[in-house]
Each structure stands twice: as structure tokens, then as C-alpha cells.
Amino acid sequence: MSEEIKLMKGNEAIAHAAIRCGCDGYFGYPITPQSEIMETLMDEQPWKTTGMVVLQAESEVAAINMVYGGAGCGKKVMTSSSSPGVSLKQEGISYIAGAELPCLIVNVMRGGPGLGTIQPSQADYFQAVKGGGHGDYKVIVLAPASVQEMADFTALSFDLAFKYSNPAMILADGVIGQMMEKVVLPPFVDRLTKSEIEKQSPWATYGKPASRKPNVITSLELESKDMEQRNLKFQAKYREIEENEVRYEELACEDAEYLLVAFGSSARVCQKAVELAREQGIKLGLIRPITLWPFPTKLIQSYASSSKVKGFLAVEMNAGQMIEDVRLAVNGKVSVEYFGRLGGIVPTPDEVVEALKAKFL
Questions:
Q1: In the chain, N or C terminus with fewer CB closer than 10 Å?
Q2: Structural domain boundaries, residue 257
Q3: What is the distance between the alpha carbons of residues 300 and 330, in angstroms, rounded to a whole number?
């Protein structure tokens, strides 16, 4: 089927994109503000058309371990949740990363800590990019800023997950999950057959033919020297991802004297803030990290090393998390400041401009 243009929520776009990109299975549990992902999948009933499994698990812990099992079979599987639910999935995510399995995890963030609020937040940045579970591991993290990107990043996340045998995450905030925009849905892609899975994922536990030894999927190594070698392999893979998969967007950065750094819905606010600032004669630009990990460190380093950029303002809907990665990239060359709102409040473009003035001008 050809592309279709629809008006829908960000959460709904993920569900439709998952069906269309050949997803084999979704395992989740309802929690605001992402419940429409599973609700849309249930409404669409893809098990009748593509054969995709859609299952509401008894808990978030059960859901992530179902993903673990499905991923171990070489299947294209995913889960979704919101902040407290993703916290419950962290042990399973660490296991999946340790077993080097591909999967997609969607987190539509709400305010915290604790039960917090159902209003939007970006306070799960640390959890997503620093490894929220135990051990030294990384998850590929994509931060959409539109409903279109919610759809586009679903297929992209699966592609990256399978390319690197690693979990990938869509880290959206509640604004992007709940807002409605026009979206171009991708064409349908058939689910992989068993023979195609055997070719793409020879490590998978899809049933042992007589021609090979059993495939064993585990994250356990009892010998320290073997576990060290496994970890060194992980670190080499993460360096490869950092080298090849950094994604970002630049706006009005060519002559900018000050740069905003923001992701997700904060970046949309900052787009307008750049426009307002330039109307007032302030040369302001915006860097939007699309991959939160790997982070666009080299890009920020290059601007910090230039003679024209005088400062960076990290704009976040949290108490200041991404700013740490901005500061590491800038490495003291120029000033890095923070502005944000907490508790589910979305900052306005005027507030961003006033914060810039207060901190730099």
C-alpha cells in the first residue's frame, strides 16, 4: 500500500508505524500519557492482517521480559510505557542489552519523581542515556519533536536496534505523545519469514537445524575474565555507534552568538524563541539533539571552539539533566547555563528569551 496522510496523536502514530514497519509483537501495560499506543493497536487488530501479536501484560516487568523472549527469537518486538513504568522495566532492559538483543522501548515521559503527574516532562533523560539499570550499557535514544518523527523513528529505531544488536528507545515527552498533527504514514512492510530471520539473525533461538550448534542467549558469564571481554566488546560497539549514528538539527546557527540546546517539545518552543530573539537583534541559534545517545558532542565542541559563540543555554523540562552533557562537550570554553520548568509545566518562548537575557546579556 502507498503512503497515507492522517491527522493523529503522536502515540497513535507510533502504533500505526509499528504495524506498517513489520513489527512482530507488542507487549505493554497502560499508563498515562502513552496508553493510546496500546489502545490504537487493539483497535487496529493487526493480528488479523499482519499477524502481529498485541498483548497487555500483567505488569511492566512481565512486558519487558516478554520483549526479551521475543527478541531472543529474532523477532521485531517492542514495548511502551511512561516514566514510572519504564523504571520497572530497567532490570529487563539491562538484561536485553547484556544479551545484545534488538528491541524498541518507547517512553512517553510524565512528571516525577514517584507517581508525580500525568503532565509532560523530560526528567527521564538521565535514566535513558546514562543506563537506568545496572551495569555498563547503553541504549540508542531518539528524541522526536513532532508526530511525524514519532512515526519515522519507529522504523528507524528498529533498524538501528538490529544493526547493532542493541535496544533502542524513543524518548518522547507527553506533549509529543498527546498532540495531534498531520503525519505521513509509511507503506506497509511485510513481517520477516522464518528463513529471513535465520539469514538476518543467525544468533536467534528460532529452532535448531541439524547443521549448527544450539544458539544460547544469555547475559551471564561466571568467569570474570570472560565477563571483562564481553564488556570490552560492548564498549567497542558503543564507540562505533557514537562514530556513525549521531543525529541532530541546527537552526540559525551560522552567525549565532548564543546557542540554545533543546530536545523534544522544548526544541519546538525554542524554535519560536530563536525567532523572537532575532527580532530583538539577538543572534540566537538552536541545536536540537535528535539522538540523545549518542549525543552530538563533536558538534557542540566545534561551536564552543569558535570565536563567535559566547554561550549556551540548555532548555529542558526538568531540573537540568542534558546540561551536563552540554557542559562536558563545551569543556569550559564558554559559559553554559540552564533554563527549565518543572512539574509538567511547558516553558514559553518568551520565558526562554528572558532567561537568555538574564543569564548572558
A1: N
A2: 248-360
A3: 7
189-238 pLDDT, tens digit per residue, is 999 999 999 999 999 998 888 888 999 999 999 999 999 999 999 999 99
ω into residue 46 within 30 of 0, thus cis?
no
CATH of the domain at 252: 3.40.50.920
Whether residues 32 and 179 fall in one domain: yes
Q: Cα(first)–Cα(last) distance of the chain, in Å?
A: 54
Residue 292, φ and ψ in degrees, nearest 5: -80, -35
CB atoms within 10 A of CB 68: 22
Closest C-alpha to 82, from 131, 118, 38: 118
Q: What is the CATH number for 179?
A: 3.40.50.970
Task: Pick the closest to residue 34 from 52, 60, 53, 58 (CA basis).
Answer: 60
Contact predicate 191/52, CB 8 Å:
yes
The whole-model pTM stands at 0.96
pLDDT recorded at residue 1: 46
Q: Show the cell assigned to 345.
A: 509545566
E runs forming strands in the chain: 4-9, 25-28, 53-56, 77-81, 103-109, 140-142, 167-173, 180-185, 248-251, 258-261, 284-289, 291-293, 311-316, 335-340
Mean pLDDT in residue range 12-39: 98
Q: Using DSSP, state whether 258 is helix, strand or coil.
A: strand
Taking 3-state DSSP, the helix, strand and coil percentages for the chain, each rounded to the nearest 5, stand at 45, 20, 35
pLDDT digits (tens, 9 = 90+) for 295-349: 999 999 999 999 999 999 999 999 999 999 999 999 999 999 999 999 999 999 9
Mean pLDDT over the full length of the chain = 97
Residue with cell 539577538: 282
pLDDT per position as a tens digit, 126-182: 999 998 999 999 999 999 999 999 999 999 999 999 999 999 999 999 999 999 999
Contacts of 312 (CB under 8 A, 6+ apart): 258, 259, 260, 261, 300, 303, 304, 326, 330, 334, 335, 336, 337
The answer to whether the beta carbons of residues 173 and 122 sit under 8 Å apart is yes
Q: Say yes or no: 268 and 167 in one domain.
A: no
Residue 72: count other Cβ atoms within 10 Å of its Cβ.
21
